[in-house]
Amino acid sequence: MDVPIFDPRGFRLTAFEADLCARAREFGARVLAPRAAQWDREASFPVANYDDMRREGWLGICIGREEGGWGADFRAYCLAAAEFGRYCGATALTWNMHVCSTLWTGLLTDDLEMDEETRATHRGRRALHYGRILGEGAVFSQPFSEGGAAAAGTVAFGTTATRDGAGFRIKGRKIFASLAGHADFYGILCTEQHDEEKLSRRDTLYLAVPKDAPGVSVEGEWDPLGMRGTVSRNLAFRDVWVPEEAMLMPPGLYFQAASRWPHMFMTLTPTYMGLAQAALDFTIRYLRGEQPGTPPVKRRMYPTKQIAVAEMRVMLEQTKALWFAAVSEAGPDPSKEAVLRALAAQHTVMENAAALAAKAVRTCGGQAMLKTLPLERIFRDSRCGSLMLPWTAELCIDRIGRDSLYEKGEAD
Ligand SMILES: Cc1cc2nc3c(=O)[nH]c(=O)nc-3n(C[C@H](O)[C@H](O)[C@H](O)COP(=O)(O)OP(=O)(O)OC[C@H]3O[C@@H](n4cnc5c(N)ncnc54)[C@H](O)[C@@H]3O)c2cc1C
Question: What is the position in ligand 1's atom list of the atom closest to the CA of 227?
């Protein structure tokens, strides 16, 4: 067994977190790692992994205990998800989309304001969704991106939902919809359209659209650089009708969540935290002559290799420390400093995962980058982290610079 990414004693994990991470690590090594090359080679969805995750209970990790799940909070989930990412980036990233549909509707909305009647209705609806996950093994995805500025959070989503009878009629298109064709429900963000009024971000709706609803189609090819097992094809919604119970959050709540619980956008980082660790794991195994699939040739005695490994470890420990601090302070209404730290952590994990993988390739050398070994996949998968909206590496830098120099309401 690999050592934990986050040593329970060193990072003072709770007993629950330590146990969850140990189980995630065991599952990753036993189930995810042996199959990871296949999904990558074929750009196919890790169906067999989801069968095992379903059987072993991982789909309900963030559903509250009183609602039948494992009750992991934000940090516990992030720590476990990093262990998944260490062994299969594509599975961890797609699992994250699914888990967010429970984390955001559960723990996160519990922290937000709504009147008692709205809360009771929401709890009733989420029980329905959770029942599908826990009882029927349903998998949810999170297609938000549309190719315009909406996924960056600056304008309203162009996919619209209009009231129609006891439900909504949806029109629009999503790009990069991970789990396309494989999720049972697409948890889309769209804008509720009121008559001819201009679309507003305040009217964002979060709806669960069944994959077989008339008018839903999966379109386009999927042959990307990395994260190939995510199968992030396009989704089209042509006059798709869903009942009111499809609401994963009450109207207006997503807008409140995005403003008051900004760490919600950090959930893409655990996968890349795991990939960063995987780059160092590989390098150490390889230089010691212990990487399965390679001859037992040792390269660890060269000072240049030792320096490279030392630099990688320093970068990894810096990344872990900042990320751990940021995921530990996630919650409602964070201070400005905490939000800046979260953005810095997001930027650091995404950029450093790619930098560590690149350094691993340079340090280990030519034979290490053959496609028969995991490093080549880690290198490509890790490159995709910085591109994830709304907190891409560029947008993090934009916001950190602006918000460090300006207080609310200030302008030049
Ligand atoms: C493997 C993979 C899986 C994905 N899975 C999902 C998924 O399941 N669901 C989902 O919703 N999306 C998903 N995405 C999409 C992802 O979150 C981004 O939406 C997508 O990568 C953006 O691509 P784009 O070319 O449209 O970027 P653009 O919007 O053209 O942006 C290009 C770059 O410009 C910068 N930029 C963008 N907007 C602004 C702005 N307003 N101001 C300043 N700079 C800006 C950003 O740094 C961005 O990286 C996935 C992407 C990948 C690579």
Answer: 1
* 348 C-beta closer than 6 A to ligand 1: no
Residue with the smallest CA separation from ligand 1 atom 42 is 395
CATH 1.10.760.10 assigned to 261-401: no
- Listed as ranges, residues in the chain with pLDDT below 70 are none
Which sign does the torsion angle of CA 355, 360, 362, 366 carry? negative
Residue nearest to atom 50 of ligand 1 (CA): 176
Q: Which CATH code fits 15-137?
A: 1.10.540.10
Candidate from 207, 388, 399, 400 with most ligand 1 atoms within 8 A of CB, to mutate: 388
Which residue in the block uniquely carries the two structure tokens 């409140």?
256
Kindly list the domain boundaries of the chain, sorted by start residue: 15-137, 150-251, 261-401
**Architecture, CATH, for domain 150-251:** Beta Barrel (2.40)
Q: What is the pTM of this model?
A: 0.97
Encode pLDDT of 298-334 as tens digits. 999 999 999 999 999 999 999 999 999 999 999 999 9
**Pocket perturbation via mutation, ligand 1, pick of 91, 96, 145, 343 by most ligand atoms within 8 A of CB:** 145
Q: What is the pLDDT of residue 398?
A: 98
| C-beta neighbour count of 273 within 10 angstroms | 32
Q: Is 394 in the pocket of ligand 1 (CB under 6 A)?
A: yes
Is residue 20 packed enough to be buried (19+ CB in 10 Å), middle (13-18) or exposed (0-12)? buried
Q: Half-sphere exposure of residue 9, counting CA atoms within 13 Å on the CB side?
A: 1
Q: Establish whether residue 149 lines the binding site of ligand 1, counting it when its CB lies within 6 angstroms of any ligand atom.
A: yes
